[in-house]
Write a structure and sequence with these properties.
Layout: H1 9-13, E1 18-22, E2 28-32, E3 40-43, H2 51-59, H3 68-73, E4 88-95, E5 98-104, E6 109-116, E7 121-125, E8 128-130, E9 133-135, E10 139-144, E11 148-154, H4 157-182
Antiparallel strand pairs: 1-2, 3-6, 4-5, 5-11, 6-10, 7-8, 7-11, 9-10
């Protein structure tokens, strides 16, 4: 890892406050980052990453820009003008399969949660189902009209299928036991 990699704007987006930097002779020093973005924040617009530019950068990662402005231009993080001023996202609950937030926003925007975008997540805004969008190529985002309560719930199709099959097996087992007892 190059020293300038430690100053990448991506660290700020990922909420990394402390970075361990290697020193000569196998030693480390810990540096506190001045700018760290919160785990959840509001932006006025979502920009999609430029796929052609991303493919070109992936083929030569050591030439990839690290500063926040360049990453914002690529659509990999929000630009300073994209953030919704005077907005706040407060975590009410944060568990492996459920994340709930109270959002205070003076205007419409996008709530970005810097957890990985992954199939199986459902979202509810003020208890109504809402579509989850990809933000900055990796994170979850949901459109908001203003203040509200947002809840992300992990419930993939495999859970529903497994639950259905377990219930079916239980019913068949009870039916077999009941039928077997009636023949005695």
């Amino acid at each position: 890892m190059k020293a300038e990699d430690l100053d990448s704007g991506m660290w700020a987006l990922l909420g990394v406050k402390y970075v361990a930097e290697p020193l000569p002779a196998g030693r480390l020093t810990v540096r506190e980052r001045a700018q760290v973005m919160p785990r959840a924040f509001l932006v006025s617009r979502l920009r999609s990453p430029d796929e052609a530019q991303l493919r070109a950068l992936a083929s030569r990662p050591r030439t990839a820009p690290a500063d926040a402005e360049a990453l914002a231009a690529l659509g990999l993080m929000p630009g300073a003008a994209d953030r919704v001023p005077r907005s706040e996202a407060t975590f009410l609950r944060y568990e492996a399969e459920r994340v709930a937030l109270a959002v205070s926003a003076p205007s419409a925007g996008w709530l970005v949660l810097t957890d990985c975008m992954f199939p199986g997540w459902r979202c509810y805004v003020n208890e109504a189902p809402a579509r989850i969008h990809s933000a900055y190529g990796a994170f979850r985002a949901v459109s908001l009209a203003g203040d509200g309560r947002v809840e992300f719930v992990y419930w993939p199709a495999s859970f529903a299928v497994g639950f259905f099959l377990a219930a079916l097996a239980l019913c068949v087992g009870v039916a077999v036991l009941t039928a077997g007892g009636a023949h005695r």
